[in-house]
Amino acid sequence: xxxxxxKAQETAGKPVVLEDLVLTTAMPTxxxxxxxxxxxxxxDAEVVAKLEAAGYGIAGKANIGEFGFDLxxxxxxxxxxxxxxxxxxxxxxxxxxxxxxxxxxxxxxxxVQRRAAAQAGQVCVKPTYGTVSRFGTIAVVCSGxxxxxxxxxxxxxQDVLSAIAGHDDKDGTSLPQAVCEKVKTPAELAHKKxxxxxxxxxxxxxxxxxxxxxxVAFAQDAGFxxxxxxxxxxxxxxxxxxVLMSSELCNNVSRFxxxxxxxxxxxxxxxxxxxxxxxTEAFGExxxxxILFGSEMLSEENYMPRYDKSxxxxxxxxxxxxxLFGEYDAVLMPACSKMAYTPAEVAADKFLCFKxxxxxxxxxxxxxxxxxxxxxxxxxxxxxxxxxxxxxxxFDAASxxxxxxxxxxxxx
Amino acid sequence: xxxxxxxxxxxxxxxxxxEEQEAETLAFFAEREADMAIVDAVDTQEVERMxxxxxxxxxxxxxxxxxxxxxxxxxxxxxAAEDGYWQVPRTVD
Lengths: 412, 93
Known about the structure:
The complex is a heterodimer of chains A (412) and B (93). By secondary structure, chain A is of the alpha/beta class. Helices cover 39% and strands 14% of the residues of chain A. Chain B has a domain of 38 residues. Chain B is built from three helices and two strands; from the N terminus they run αααββ. In chain B, strands 1-2 form a two-stranded antiparallel ribbon.
């Protein structure tokens, strides 16, 4: 088990941990992969500069699964993390529980951080796409991934989000400063209505549903109306996201070839051997499968019926959310199907992350802010990040006294 | 999807799978293909593709000279380098 894979020699300021897809000059950046074991970046990510400018200190780098898109860090070259009950956990959530770190800043590629926060009773915000610079993060799924913040409380998450949000000329997808500022201050939730995603909630177990029930009761007490909605189009986000994620990942990791940096096979007599043996020996099984799937989705035969179809599906999901936000302030849904995953489950189904992301794909494919707190997920309109955090924070505080969510059987 | 296509994909992506891994990969592809039925059920004939979720501005800016990275620093993490060049196996006989 490996939590903090690199510890800073000195930490000045409020300690923040970075997940290992964020480039740092002071410590290696591995992306959880053998391919980048020991890799030293020549520059810091923009979020590092912004955190330091705001008085935070980088305390270390947290272990992640290979390139951050797995279920719960199980594919890390440095080993998966388990808690005392034998459940898989993210290094970030363990560090938040067991260290002085005020927050963990990572890259939400495929929802790991949101699942981890839901299971650990922590808070995670995946901000509106384009409001936090991705310059200096290892690109995996450029069209949907976002720098995210995990913390023990919504207030701490908001503080860190406010520190790192802002325009960056170095990131071609960075939004103008005036727009980025919107995620720092909560706007009023004018509709006073929350939509409850029916099928997504039905797909979760009783422990997760108890968290949803607790949120519904909280929201109603706070004057919100909660209505169940038909979420069929949101459910359809997952397969489309899987196609887009795999296709973009396939292209992004093609740069890792063993020539200029990273792992090189010792068994390479020709240049083709060098490429093939280096990638074959360094990449894990999930990554290889995802590369191959993405490559096939971009083939002449599949480009239109699969890749192009998924891009059209993205618009369908975006428009469905827009329709919902004409009536509701947020969509309430789980972030995961259960409150713990065991290593045995993942061993039995190595590709579980392609199914369990049904809860995180809708916000990822649409670039919308998603906040997890108290074991539930709220997805809101673009730039409603602070409002979602404020509402989720109130729920989180209420749900912690007394504990409102039942633990899953496996972790009792 | 079949073994022949998979072997071609492996070659294209500079990867090599074992027989056992190939069987798992074919099952993985079959799962993903089955998933797509949910998407296929949605009529997107008249829907425009969406590459970016945000309306992005052109970020081209004026060229300006900056200090480049030192060659030595760039090659510090190279698997093999000599005299300022990256070393690879012979590519031309």
